Amino acid sequence: MTNKEYQRLLRALAAKHLAVRTDRPGPYPPGDPLYLLNKQAGLRKDLKEISDIARQFNAIDRHDDLDRLRHQLSQTSPIEQTKEALEDTGILNALEDAGQVVFRELRRKAVPQEDYQLLSAAGFTNDEIEILLASAIHDAQLGKVYPKDLSRQLDEASAIFNTTVVQLQAQPSEPKKRKIFNGIGKILGGSVAGVGNALMAAGTIVAPNPATGAGALACAAVALPLIFGGIGDLRGE
């Protein structure tokens, strides 16, 4: 598949699936003009929370500050927030529709500049961002993301992440500690990209833009391999 063919696929999926979910409880009825603005405000809040945690994570002393890290990570549920954001904007539906192709054909050119900006703002260095993107694309192309029932898979990933956070007060061996930190870094990076791209998608629902919708799907194709790859690291795989 050429770059142009891949972009056409992403744009078609965005046109078919991107729409704000209207069955979530909220202060405004779906027909109210403030409904979508409220959804966007919620996504911005979630993105800020996860980005703040990622910045704190990237700044800590990883040799002996596990208690502080556990406290920081227990303040939010990044995978759960990511799942809800992707569901609310129709992105999970799009990936379940044609995810096999979206993931296996993922390439660097499809990843919008917004991904770099989101990860940089969350405290990841340029080198760390390159490694995260390369890891996500590699896992996606190898078929390590199963694009069916993604909501359930994210629920399971969130449960594993929460259990790992609770256990961080213990002192693991140095190799296991490195795996844990690598895994948490991937999960936070994937969550930042996931919620950030859902915010992009919400924007293009208000003012349709095929390029923005395609970019949001490409971001999601990066976010999920990072989250699932991070869970694999936490399990020691």
What's the layout of helices and strands?
Elements: H1 3-17, H2 34-59, H3 66-73, H4 78-88, H5 91-104, H6 113-121, H7 126-141, H8 150-166, H9 174-206, H10 210-234
Overview of the structural elements:
The chain is built from 10 helices and no strands. With 237 residues, the chain is mostly helical. It has one domain. Helix 4 packs parallel to helix 9 and helix 9 packs antiparallel against helix 10. The longest helix is centred in the C-terminal third of the chain and has 33 residues. The chain is globular. The two termini are 31 Å apart. 42% of the residues are buried.
Looking at the structure, what is the overall shape? Answer: globular
Structural class: mainly alpha
- Fraction in helix: over 70%
**Count of separate structural domains:** 1
Assembly state (oligomeric) = single chain
Low-confidence spans = none
- Per DSSP E runs of 2 or more residues, the count of β-strands stands at 0
Radius of gyration: 17 Å
**Average pLDDT taken over every residue:** 86
Range of strand content:
under 5%
Order of helices and strands: HHHHHHHHHH
Can you count the helices? 10
Could you give the distance between the termini? 31 Å
Main β-sheet description: none
